[in-house]
Every structure is written in C-alpha cells, then in structure tokens.
Amino acid sequence: MDLVKTLSQQYMKPELPEMNVGDTVRVVVRVKEGNRERTQAFDGTIIARKHGGISETITVRRISYNVGCEKVFPVHSPTIVSVETIRKGKVRRAKLYYLRDRVGKQAKVKERV
What we know:
Blueprint: H1 2-9, E1 24-33, E2 36-50, E3 57-64, E4 67-74, E5 80-87
C-alpha cells in the first residue's frame, strides 16, 4: 500500500485552490485538436465532489441556452490548467443534485458573504 501511495503522491498537484460544493468556478482545460493545443474555460457551479486523493473529481454544472450541461473534471489531471473560484456559495448539502430539476432563478445558489 505504501508503494501505491508514494506513486500517486508524485502525480498529485501540490496546491489546489479553495473550492467547495456550491461555489461558482471557472475551470480552464487544455484541449488538443489535431496537432494544435488551446485552452478552453468552463464556468459553472460545483454540484459534487467525489473520491479523494489522486482520483478526486468535481462535477460542474452550467446552463447555456436553456440546456443544462454537466462535466466531470478530475482535479489532479494534467489537462486542467487552473480552477478559479468566481463566487462562494452558501449551501447546506454535500451534493446539489436537486439543481438538475430546477430552471431559471430557482437554479441559483445564494452567495456566502
């Protein structure tokens, strides 16, 4: 077990930004198309954090053109350039799956002051 732990420790990112469920974040991802590389931002609300260690993931949800879109990002992936917190959310749950059923203003999370 110690070998697995030390092996996965070297691939983990040393510093992660402060991000919690309910926060609105901008995840910048490195996208490779053919032989070109570019960065692409995905803004949305974190509705879930799962697992831990090297396999930790966040699920980010946004609504664009009245259609909900969710993406699961591995936090320690080398394709993730940065995760920037835009605003803090005031929530009382660990998973915000109830936001999937809501539209419009109901789908917003209150801001923590």
